[in-house]
TrEMBL record:
Family per record: Belongs to the UPF0177 family.
Name of this chain's protein: CPBP family intramembrane metalloprotease
Superkingdom field: Bacteria
A Pfam match: Rce1-like
Amino acid sequence: MAKRRYGQILGVWLGSLLAIYLMGSVSARFHLPELTRELLIEVFMVIFIVGVNRYGVHGHLYWRPDVSVREQLRVNTFPLFIIGLGLLTSWVAPWSARTGYAIGLAALAGLVAVFEETLFRGIILGSLLTGLSQQRHGVLWAVGLSSLLFSLSHAINLTHQSAAVTAVQVLGTFAMGLLLAVSYLQTRSLIWPMAFHALFDFSGFLRLGLTTGANPQTPLAVELVSVGVAGCWALCLLRPNQQRRVLARFMTEKNTQTTGKGV
């Protein structure tokens, strides 16, 4: 059963990467405007991952938070600070995007967030959480492994950017993956990580454009520090007693097969 579960996780992950690559190759033949092309790819990927989950892996996705608004804000304090800082620097920095184009960028960021959070936090993290629930520190392993797959996925950007920039992006996305995973586990709602992811990508699009996945001026050491800080945040919010609480909240719903909060 364990081998089947992990094989399924790898299959969904690699299948998604292949779908992205094929869609990119096919759409490039039509010489569409860059933003239009990216929007079409992400619309397809959202449909793809929803279909894979509905008719294939049957991952249990959670949308409605099961904690108070105050608790949701408390456990998301650090991500809220990071996103706020990113948006502030985006609006302060000079950019020439027209209003219509900015709306397109926002739509793209939202689509990317829906696809990637459904895949990495909803399906992969959820499946790892179930598979590792009996292991010591299984919650931490699930968070770390899902974040690793999330970060390694961005190595596909080597097709259009340098290895140095890609390395910075891979480290940065690993740190972000830790924060998003903790947000999902502590709120039991994909809405929070989706919102964070969309806002983070939108601010990046405004500052760096569509073709650059990371700021080429960012030293690798800075991203290493960000990984350390995100790791400390994850360890702080996922202490042993919190890990048991997470498992109780996620596993109980799956085992009883109830409807309502889980979809």
